[in-house]
Amino acid sequence: MSGELVVDEGFPTEEETQGLLLKVTDLKTSFATPRGRVRAVDGVSLELGRGETLGIVGESGSGKTVLSRSIMGLLPRRTTTQSGSIVFDGTEIVGAEDKTLRTLWGAKIAMVFQDPMTSLNPVVRIERQITESLRLHTSMDKAEAKATAISLLGQVGIPSPTERVRNYPHQLSGGMRQRVTIAIALACSPRLLLADEPTTGLDVTVQAQILDLLSSLQQERHMAVILVTHDLGVVATRTDKIAVMYAGRIVETTTTRRLFADMAMPYTKALLNSTPRISDPSHTRLTAIDGRPPDLINPPPGCAFAPRCESATDQCRTEAPPLRPAPSDPTHLFACWNPLPGGTAGRVTTLEESP
Amino acid sequence: MAADTPLLSISDLVVTFKKGRQNVQAVAGVSFDVFEGETLGLVGESGCGKSTTGRAIVRIEEPTSGTVRIDGTDLTKLARRDLRKARTEIQMIFQDPVSSLNPRRRVKDIVAEPLDIWKTQTGDERAATVREMLEAVGLDPDVASERYPREFSGGQCQRISIARALVMKPKVLICDEMVSALDVSVQAQILNLVEDLKARYGLTLVFIAHDLAVVKNVSDRVAVMYLGRLCEIAPSDELYSRPAHPYTEALLSAVLEPDPSKEHSHVTLSGEPPSPIDPPSGCRFRTRCPKAEERCAAEVPELREIATGHQVACHFPTLRSTS
Predict the structure, then answer these.
(1) What is d(CA B113, CA B117) in angstroms, rounded to the nearest whole number?
(2) Separation between Cα atoms, residue B47 and residue B275, nearest integer Å
(3) Which chain A residues contact residue B187 at CB under 8 A?
(4) Are B194 and B184 in contact (CB under 8 A)?
(5) pTM, two decimal places
(6) Neighbours of A345 (CB within 10 A)
(7) Local structure of residue A105 (DSSP, 8 states)
């Protein structure tokens, strides 16, 4: 990037390169619905350092999207109840006024959504959608902002950006649109990028391109990224650490390497084992998890995963396990009464006899 | 596994759509056989024509030319009435389980509808068949029968559509992205269920999906499509361990494995597939192919056999030793 971007002026201070960027403490987000209160995020705490990448993994209904929107401060006020704290770069997000949030959105914290067609405005040219935040948050004039928009499109890998900047979203393919939303998110060099299932609707080859793009941009800009996904494959090689969510809670969190090498939570292992792998022979019997995630209006007492867990005991069904550190590594946290013995990440597969 | 004559034989299938004054060849001459008791996986990226191929087989989309033979009968030549009869042998399951079920009908009536249309079973016999089918797909008939689709989750709705598809005891099942809308834990349940039902009812499957790992898991053979044409077709383990077409190689290298120790060695494909309105001459993949030469622009590569059962449509396939 050239010196045109004036959001972060001068050299970053020591404070800006070190220490925590985001600290979430006992966050609870719930929604009022006609059926009752949905506890979508139920006591989540996490920390993210500057320039770090965190993967949040979970199935639909696990609360991962609500968590990312809570961090962004993007939830409807009228139906949402929140408690706990989210401190982003010294600013409290929970209960913050719109005025405060507007100074953060786009400038310091930006988001890439799953569906680029619905997150882009269909009747506005790409150029204006990118320059909007530049004009708002920086002192750039129109011409500078346009030049920056073109340079951003080039950086996210859009061919002939000078012409493309005149296009409307419908003139671009799905992969190109997602590149545009990334360009918009990066326009003001945010410190944190939230990417919620950024590659879910895309083809495998395009998915690989977009994820490569995100990691190279992140390294260039020393930006922190939260990658929210249901796909363990997406986070396995692209994140520093992972938080696995189930029923609104973090059930296991540690560094990516340790998680895959030495997972403690039976749910994490079940999730991994139910994912078909390209390295397995065909007709490998998958270890499916019976049942489905609990209803977040009336969650079961005890561990939320207990009804589907093979190693559940009476204690699991009555008493909710706290998130506690592993004896061998205090940074590895998990919420389970009967954790898997160490080094059990290797999966057990049974080859089904062909009929 | 394979009998000598294929149960389902697709030959030179072409499907053309009109887009304004232009013609789009979504499927441009595809031929393959599926043998009894076999699962053929059909993979490719969006827009490659895999779903259109599936839909053209059952004539939801009318094929422009080509033949689709099941047990020797050419479905493309059948009159409407005969086609309806023939479709009891060949059923389809769609991607979105919720929208493929009528929201105003009870589950028992949804599952029994094919029986009602053909009036093959009535009364107690019909009720017993519905119970059998619901049990076969892992739903409790006492709980599920009287309910409406909205009371079920996505995975359960997909089970209901499977029950409906199987109630006439078809020979062939076309599954179009049947697990792509589901969570991994539910996806695994449905994939295992499909394997069980295939064994129990002796089904022959055409399994269409974009997820290469899912396709490998269920398929005996896999066919790869690109821009309306077949690139490569081979037994699954062979195709995944020794891909010969540069496109198959690129697809496989882009797959993300849930294993941090596996660094990605991307043969990253640049760009995206060209428009099928104006496809490249010769080999359709040549515009993105790292190996493309002049011959690729001039000459359409035909499918040819490079190993037993392994066919590839490429002038310069990657040949690997069978070790």
Answers:
(1) 6
(2) 9
(3) 274, 276
(4) no
(5) 0.87
(6) 17
(7) B
Distance CA B273, CA A164 (A): 18
The one-character DSSP state at B182 is S
CATH domain A19-239 topology: Rossmann fold (3.40.50)
Query: In this structure, are residues B88 and B170 in contact, taking their beta carbons and an 8 Å threshold?
Result: yes
User: Which residue in A203, A230, A281 is closest to B237 by CB distance?
Assistant: A281
Pairing type for strands B229-235 and B221-226 reads antiparallel
ipTM: 0.84
Residue among A205, A209, A263 nearest A232 (CA): A263
Q: Do A282 and B214 touch (CB under 8 A)?
A: no
> Which amino acid is residue A289, in one-letter code?
I
In sequence order, what are the residues at sequence separation of 6 or more whose Cβ sits closer than 8 angstroms to the Cβ of residue A327? Answer: none
Which strand ranges, in their side-by-side order, compose the sheet holding A91-92?
A36-49, A20-33, A80-88, A91-92
DSSP code string of B85-145: HHHTTEEEE-S-TTTTS-TTS-HHHHHHHHHHHHT---HHHHHHHHHHHHHHTT--HHHHT
CB contact under 8 Å between A231 and B257, yes or no, is no
For residues B62-91, b (16+ Cβ closer than 10 Å) or e, as one string? ebbebebbbeeeebbebeeeeeeebbbbbb
For residue B208, the distance in angstroms to the closest alpha carbon of chain A comes to 14
Optimal mutation site among B46, B196, B217, B222, interface A, most CBs of chain A within 10 A: B217
Which amino acid type is present at position A21? L
- Please state, in angstroms and as integers, the Cα–Cα distance from residue A163 to each residue in A124, A171, B102, B153, B319, following that order: 15, 12, 46, 45, 42
Burial of B259 (0-12, 13-18, 19+ CB in 10 A): middle
pLDDT tens-place values along chain B, 323 residues long: 445 789 999 999 999 998 888 889 999 999 999 999 999 999 998 889 999 999 999 999 999 999 999 998 999 999 999 999 999 999 999 988 888 999 999 999 999 999 999 988 888 999 999 999 999 999 999 999 999 999 998 899 999 999 999 999 999 999 999 998 888 888 999 999 999 999 999 999 999 999 999 999 999 999 999 999 999 999 999 999 999 999 999 999 888 888 888 766 566 677 778 888 889 999 999 999 989 999 999 999 999 999 999 999 999 999 887 65
Radius of gyration over alpha carbons of chain B, in Å? 21
Q: Which residues of A touch B210 (CB under 8 A)?
A: 203-204
Q: Where exactly are the structural domains of chain A?
A: 19-239, 245-334
Percent of residues in chain B assigned helix, strand, coil, to nearest 5: 35, 20, 45
Distance from CA of B79 to the nearest CA of A (A): 37
